[in-house]
Structure formats: C-alpha cells, structure tokens
What we know:
It is built from two helices and ten strands; from the N terminus they run αββββββββββα. Strand 5 and strand 6 (90-103) form a beta hairpin. With 184 residues, the protein is α+β, with helices and mostly antiparallel strands. It has one domain (39-183). The chain starts with a helix and ends with a helix.
Amino acid sequence: MRYNNFYINIILVKNILVFLLFFFSYSCSPNSTKIKPSESIECPPVFFAAEHGNYLKFNQDENITLENLAYKAEINNYAFPKPCFIKNNIYNFSIGVLLIIDPMNIISPEISMPIYVALLDSSNKIIEIQYFSVEGVLEKDKDSEEYLQTEISKILNFKISSNYTVNNFIIGFMLNKKQKELLN
C-alpha cells in the first residue's frame, strides 16, 4: 500500500512535468497568428466621376423639378489625412472629401448626400465600390437669415483585402435616373 502511493505520486509529478514542458515549449515558439506591424504604402491617385460629380436634392422626391430644388452640391477636393498602409493583409485607406453645397429653396438645413468610392485595378476594372453618406447642416447668415454656400468635409475610411492591387479611386455621388437627366 505504501509503495502504491509512492508510485502514484511519481506518475503524477511526471505528468505535471510533461505538461509544463509542452506548455513552455509552445509558448516560446514563433506563432504565425501574431499581429504583424503595419507597412506604409503609396496612396493611389483619386479621380472624380465625370457624370457623378454633382448632386441635386429636391424638397419632394416625387416632384422633381428645378423649382423644387433644395440644394445642389459638387465634389470640390480631396486629401489623404493619414498615410495609406497595409496591416495583416488588409489595405487601409482614409480619404478626406470636400463638398460645396449651394442652397436653393431650403425647407430644412439638414443635408444628406450619398457618395461612393470605386476602387479600380490596373485595367481600370472595378474591384469594389464602397458607399458612404455625408451629412451636415447648411450655414445661415445671422443678419439676413438666408442660407449660405457651405463647405462640408468628411473622412471616408475603408479597407480592402491585399489580394487585390488598387491602382486608383473614383469618387462620385449616387444619382437616380431623374438626377442624371437634369445634370447632363
């Protein structure tokens, strides 16, 4: 009986030592799932869509006439506020977009405009399109109480797998058929 306890304790200590050996050897080994540092990349060129560079918003969506036009907007400029980079096989981009809004017949000072960023490859084929909503409030003159031309900027952050090579971006407004007819 006494010898049985002795052997049981030896087996128990041996199992613990084997467990600790595997635990420490695994934790000290290189692990491929560890997070890789980010790598800065050159940001692709940005273009504005020729047919989608302007936007019209109407006070009543079913009554699309120039008399019912609330405001018109245009994409004016862009900038990269942060460097473009790749991290864990994902491209990370931030584009700041400047929009100029001209008030016409304003009912509400709150504005919302749908825009898109198309990512193109070296053959100018669309890899992906990402959609955004730019929202803001029109500025008002304190003395005359009239709405003023307003600049709204928005940072568009997006990611895409590094399985693709992004050669350029195209930014434009999402337009319905009637808006396209009036603009072109």
